[in-house]
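Hey,
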Amino acid sequence: MTKSSLSKPMGLLVSIVSVLIALVIWQILAKQGLLGKNFPGSLETLKELQWWLSDPFFNNGPNDLGIGTNLLISLRRVMIGYTLSILVAVPLGLLIGVSRLASSSANPFIQLLKPVSPLAWLPIGLFVFRDSELTGIFVIFISSVWPTLISTAFGVQTINPDYLRVSRSLGASQLRTITKVVLPAVMPNILAGMRISMGIAWLVIVAAEMLLGSGIGYFIWNEWNNLSLPNIFVAIIVIGLTGILLDQLIGALQKRFDYQV
């Protein structure tokens, strides 16, 4: 059976069945002690998940927040840092794509900074901003800016030159060429980069928040200090489901611009 021949309902059914099988295997392995003593099973984890979701937004102090409250804190940081990265990456990517001088000037910095681990920016952010909230946003920004920037620049550089020549022959200015020809043509590349950037942003904030004192990442760290593995798995499930939702939202937008130029 090919991927194209698998209907959406059947694909959904297969996904549900595979998840159920994984939960059963998890439960069996945990109960048999094959994953270690006191390792929580899937049933115990799902019961904890139900408890946390029954009142997800309680706030009893900095170290006693509902999982929904922690999730909103993380999402706020991600959205601010991610939005800033897009506002910088798209214009800069367009400039790099249309200008060889800009490309040559920016390339050393991109190649130098792109591979740096997100956590390496934490001490720098804390030193500069002296604020955990701003540090979290900064780390998200500096980590998620590169995929969109590179994808945008690559998209511009691979545009059919005939489009640009026709635009110039019609007397269009550089700005009008970028806004009316280049930007629409490169939108699929921009959205592909944005999708990757969102995945990185969500991945980074969970790790960074373990040191920042709030958010879903700190929730995991706090539960580890309490030796509560079921709650850690609850957070992992929430993080995974949220990541899927964010990816699907951008993926839906990406499909609207899925055309060939």
